[in-house]
Specification:
The chain is mostly beta strands. It has one domain: Carbohydrate-selective porin OprB (Porin). Strands 1-2-3-4-5-6-7-8-9-10-11-12-13-14-15-16 form a 16-stranded antiparallel beta barrel. Strand 4 and strand 5 form a beta hairpin. The longest helix has 12 residues. It is globular.
Length: about 400
Amino acid sequence: MRLLIALTLSLTGSFAPSLPALAQTGGLSGPSSVEADLTPGDGLTDPQFRSTFPRNIAPGWFAWKEGLAEKEFKFNIDYLALGQSSGSDIGEGKAGGGIARFYGGWQATELGSLTFKIEHRHAYGAVAPQFLGLDGGALAITGTAFNDNGTMLTNLFWTQRGANGNWTLQVGQIDVTDFVDVYGLVSPYTGFQNLAFNTNPTINAPNPGLGIAGGVKLGSNFYAVASVADANADPTQPDFKVFDHGNLFKSLEIGYTSGFDRIYFDNVHLTLWHADAADDGSRAEDYGAAFSAAWFIDNQWMPFVRAGWSKGTAALYDRSFSTGIGYYGRNTDLAGLGLNWAQSRGVPGTQFTTELFYRFSISPGLQITPSLQYIHNPLTSTQDGFALLGIRARVVF
């Protein structure tokens, strides 16, 4: 199934995304998924890199990897680092953290494959970047995914596809943020860093855990995606307790795309979700809806509009509206500008967030991304607002 493949684009033009080889494997995978991360250069064409780092320091390693890929086993080892500095009047004022990841996939049969991802998330100091906004008095996740959770089993699932390419099924340790309410700029590893512009902050998405997800084509332009996953999942201690407590996260998405080879660049969808209350009382029942529209113009510009509503008992916000634009430049560079308006039940006021970033692709295996965030009227402090400067680096082996 060519539905739900990260960055699976078949375009023309000097800097247009192209259909990566992994698109042939199918799957429920967004821009932050294993399939997307295994695609060199995020699937963009016509790179003119002058640097080949880190390939130039370990050519034998990459040749060995290419040999395994010819035998249908593909993997990467990468490291991401994020440093942020806050202008808030309170809190630590700075944060740093890293993520070491080992991920890949094995195309075991023509229609079936195994996907895995193991990672270690850690902070360099007292505060991890994910929490710097909260530490500074804003109701904001300013460094999505860069926490201090330690070793995690993020993915270990089987994908099965229909022979006619019309459906895909995944079963195992899944991360619903790989496919729930995603668009082309959703990845915190290669795109925006603030949760306001990643998976919708009104969705109480669970941590990676046991689940099942499926996608199906509904004609030539429409599709549906559904999932059921462990609402209490803890990827640092994966287990099968979902069968004991039955606390589940459920989602259903109906979407439209100009073509299934452009699903994350030309996409309009509505997502409905529901999360059961935790039996131990730590989490109340929550549910909501999210809307997203993004369209690729001239194969370079991607304006987007995203909104969400939730009951508001567990998600970060109960009302959120985001808009912005992305620009794909030379050598797979990427720029993004996002604006967000949000409210949270029980907290008076409205918070506004702006993020601007530019991802420099130094080589196919090295990216540097400076960013600037500004949070106006932070909901959990009396400040007028404060800025955060950040720089993210990613190296792929």
